[in-house]
Design goal:
The structure holds 2 protein chains of 2 kinds.
Chain A lengths: L1 H24 L22 H4 L8 E2 L14 E3 L10 E7 L2 E6 H7 L1 E6 L2 E6 L1
Antiparallel strand pairs in A: 3-4, 5-6
Chain B lengths: L1 E3 L1 E2 L2 E2 L2 E8 L2 E6 L5 E3 L4 E4 L9 E2 L2 E4 H7 L4 E3 L13 E7 L2 E6 H7 L1 E6 L2 E7 L7 E5 L9 E4 L2 E4 L5 E2 L6 E3 L13 E4 L3 H4 L4 E2 L11 H7 L12
Parallel strand pairs in B: 12-21
Antiparallel strand pairs in B: 1-8, 2-3, 4-5, 5-6, 6-7, 11-12, 11-20, 13-14, 14-15, 16-17, 17-18, 18-19
The chains are: A alpha+beta, B mainly beta.
Chain lengths: 126, 234
Amino acid sequence: MKALAASVVIVLLLFVGLLAVSTLGVPARPTETASLGTLADPDAVYDPVDVGDPLPVGFRQILPRDAILPVYDPKFVAASDSSWSDGSLVIGLELDGQSRAYPVGFLNRREMVIDSVAGIPVLVTW
Amino acid sequence: MVHRREINGQEIVFGNQGALWGNAMTWWDHDSGSIWSQPLGEAIAGPRKGQTIELLPSQLTTWEAWREAYPETLALDAAAGRAGISLLDTVIVVELSEDAAAYPVGELRERGVANDIVGGAPIAVVIDPTDDNRWAVFSRTLDDRVVELEIRFGQLIDRETQTVWDPVRGIGLDGPLAGEILDLLPGVPAFTKDVPTFWPTVRFWPPSRVLESLRAPVANAAAGIKFPGGQSTF
């Protein structure tokens, strides 16, 4: 039994090793994912509109919350891997030596990106 | 706009409220459900009403101009799409100590630099002479002096010491102040038509502009600054 268990372990280790090698073999695309904090279900969270809290004059609810879905898990590529044209308008952000670009044309559709740059939680909006 | 989504060290996640206030977007925060105004960065309803989050310096510029200034930049992994606007439709709003000034990109391109005082603080809005799609807002205060900036022969210099400054990062490149740094300040790109809605007391630069000539002296007096003959310090 011991020998069998040992061989199973060895096979497992080999498998893990192979996985690691195959992962390494894939050309690494530089991507980063933001840390986000806690995400909540829009319907489960207090909404001043639903409960009739006082709202400022001129406030107009048009769509349900997150009907235009924010980007909660932004991914990034190196500048050289981006296909944007030179004239594309972007919001550029630099914090503690790290820089990011968010294209306005994309933000027109999604409006919000929840991100973290150099450990600083940021909210990019258009 | 870019805000720091943090209150008293606590990270906050924001969503899209799907409502407009003053024709601008509103957010909801995921933990308290409060509703926030984007241009104010302030909760306008709910448990956090009256609280604000910090506006961070960011740029509205072209991909080419940004990439050249920050070659190491990462790009959001998404199609760029069509922006549908021109930078010429925008102004850069600087708000400090409840004083707000708006700098039309078209005027800035003509003049290169706006030396101004906002909320009592000497600031400059600078268009990069090598690419007029690139701009930055700097504090003009260094340890022991206040500088006046201008573009001369395609370079950003200060008048007193003739030091050449990097127009994007604010680093002294060549001259007596080489190595010193002008601090970056937040500037908000906004559409001209939206500005009075969100900054009701805003004054437009340059103060000699006809429409703003009545408002400018009031705002400037509030900042403790006098512009002789109604002219800016430019």
